[in-house]
Amino acid sequence: MTEVFQEISPADFFYRNRDLAGFTNPSRAIYTTLRELVENSLDACEVSGITPDIYVRMSYAMEPVEGPGVYNVRIEDNGLGLPEEVIPSAFGQILFGSKYKLRQTRGTFGLGGKMAILYGQITTHTAVKVISSVKRGKIYEYHLMMDIQKNRPVVLKRKVHKNKNRWHGTILEFSTEADYTHAMSKILDYFKQTATVAPYANLTFVDPRGRLYRYDRATTVMSKPPQETTCHPHGVDVETLKRLIEQTKSKNILDFMKKHFQRVGNTTAKKFLEYAGLNPKKTPKKLSTDEIVQLASAMKSFDQFLPPDASCLSPLGETLLKTGIQKEFNPEFIEVYQRKPAAYSGFPFIIEVGLACGGGIPNTGKPILYRFANKIPLLFDEASDVSYKVVNDQVDWRHYKVYPDTPLAVFVHLCSTKIPYKTVGKEFIADRPEVEREILNAIREVARRLSIFLSKKASHEKQKKRLDVFSKYLPKIALFSAKLAHRKKEPNVGPLLKSVLTYETETEEGSSEGEEGKGSR
Amino acid sequence: MKQKQKKEVVKEKKEKVLGSLTDLGTRMYDQINRRQFPWIKMPSRSTNNILYDDKTRQYILGDKNVKRSSRNIRHLRPLTQLVWTASFADELTRQRKTSTLRDVFYSAQAYEMDFVDQPESDNIITDLETVVGFPREDFNIFPEERSAIFGNLTIQYTIPGYEGKKLNLASHPDGMMIGPALTNAEFVDCKANKIIAIEKGALFTRFVEERVHDRFKAILIQTAGQAPRGTRAFIRRLSQELKLPVVIFTDGDPWGMHIAMVIIGGSANAAHLRDLNTPDAKWAGVWATDIVDYKLPSSKLTDLDVKRLYELQKDPRYHGKLWKREIETFLKIRKKAEQEAFSRYGLTYIVDEYLPAKLEAAEDL
Q1: Where do runs of H (alpha helix) occur along A78-229?
Q2: Fewer beta carbons below 10 Å: N end or C end of chain A?
Q3: How far apart are CA A53 and CA A171, in angstroms?
Q4: Would the ipTM clear 0.95, i.e. be above it?
Q5: Active site includes B162?
């Protein structure tokens, strides 16, 4: 018997391995579908600084069902829209997209949205309807299916509409198998948390039962869009290096280093090449494979590169994070903090945290953790996440006057050009020591501020309690002493009550003669 | 004439008590008017301020004082409770009504005085005793437990509804309860020449049956275990006003011994009070030496008994010759006997033989 070797297309590969991408079952699939589509839409808006208006509607394709069934999904955004010529490929060809660059975006490969459509196609055998327009052009409507084996879009129908109102954006509509009943709570959590980290977006969701969920924007200020950057030498492997060498127009390695890597200047480049044992004048294209491997490993071990440039990151910023938490949770106390950029393995990252206490935060007996990575809420596998470890094992909350009955929520946002997910499912973050340390330090900072707030609050409460006690008992002493003294008029305790608030707890702690062991024997 | 003088004693005391309560109220009233947080000062009842006084032969409080100030939030509640209790006591005394410790606990609830439990309210009453210097019985608050008296003594009531009415305390064979009506009564006529206090009810009944009150001209008092303070004060009054010697019979064990001692030397618990003890009273038995001498049926001392004996040995009240000897004997023979043990020699043996011998012995103590 001989093995049959066969090439499969990327679409075929993902079709066969859909579990990896989060399409394990109808309930998880619909959650992933909505999530990927919403994220694509948000990215489409944010990249060009448009405040997002996103509308998502789910409806029963036939009659209402409980549990798994066929649903129609429609999502509309006001993003930049797609040029006509790329529409078929953008939605009908896997590994085609705009996200293969080094900058922070929600998705990495532009894969999730297409997987969602692919999953719809394979479960319902129906086409996807795409309507899109860039501001100035016409509105194009495509009905597409994907040829899975060839990884090619098949256009079933194409229409062109006039665009009088200069509409821009994208609308997608398709059928898919889903289990809304079981996915509902996660989907609603997803919208709420997305609204938290995108407080400048209007999100609308109409669920199959016709219920409308609206998450209105609380600001029109958006975080600064990420800049594209070159690679940091620490984050480069042999394959990347080979490709760069193929493309480069540099005549020598010194120039190559300066041009294709971030934060590498003349001095650093020279020092590095000396360290790597390579002649700076050598032409990159003439490097042997051994030399390329040598170069790549030197890049990893050389410790004098400057830390990665964080301008390719787009953190939310303290103001936006605070706005988001305020609008979605309305707590009594919020404190947010953004750490300075740090790096792991050559990838820059920034940790932002928020702490919310009281008000709309429920008391669950321990801190509630909300995790975000590149503005995506992470809803599954919480206990495996590095933040969970930090919040539950490393922070001594008592130290910050937080007790199990304190209603507390911790928001952790990690942004990076490469999120260190532990698995392809992209649901939890690995415990990289660098990331872990940044999270811990960030939480400690906001926790310190929280503890100041809590002690102030406690002291106010104590004051109030104190006055309550005095207001309760002093009038009684007045009443009964008047009775005992046989006076008709009670003495006025008003001045005493007034003075209760002005002097502090001095007498309470240790009045030497006031104490008494209740003389029992 | 003599009677009238005695009546004055009871009446004068009432006035003193009421005056003391009014003073307390006035002090605090004036403090508030002077814009001071009302406060009181009283002797400390903590153990390090309880001393044995050789002169009065009882425990007394030393000169350490505590200040309860309403300025201190932790004192506020007990101080309020104290004023309320004082006002409650004042009303009781003026209206000549009596009340029990438990009553006080419940009455407080009507005034939102929120005593957590009865021990708390009992403790406040003790505070009040300390502040005004009179036992609670003087402001008509009594404990639940009662003891009894039997003997040829005629008393005259002073309580409302019974004023002037007389009663001979030998008129009911079960004895008369020692309650507020009796402790507030005047003594009119006494045919007895001694007082015998007995720990156990059974023996008290035996004594009444065997006409001990006639044969030995005795007033019999049943303490029913540890004598309540009212009874202790009453024994003292009987002994002082009628000039009668007091002998005490208890079980032959450390606990019985201590019942006698509390009547004689007072308790540390009541160190803030005077006139509750009868220093000249004698403990006549059952002694440890009696167990040996009379070959009484006995049981072994328990660990607890032995521990108690060692405690008593350290107690300054037990430094007398008799007490030292008896404690040592108990520790030596490791035995104890109840008063009923004499029944071994017949029911009347205790009255016919033991009692006369002991009364005689008591005179020499």
Answers
A1: 87-92, 112-124, 180-197
A2: N
A3: 12
A4: no
A5: no
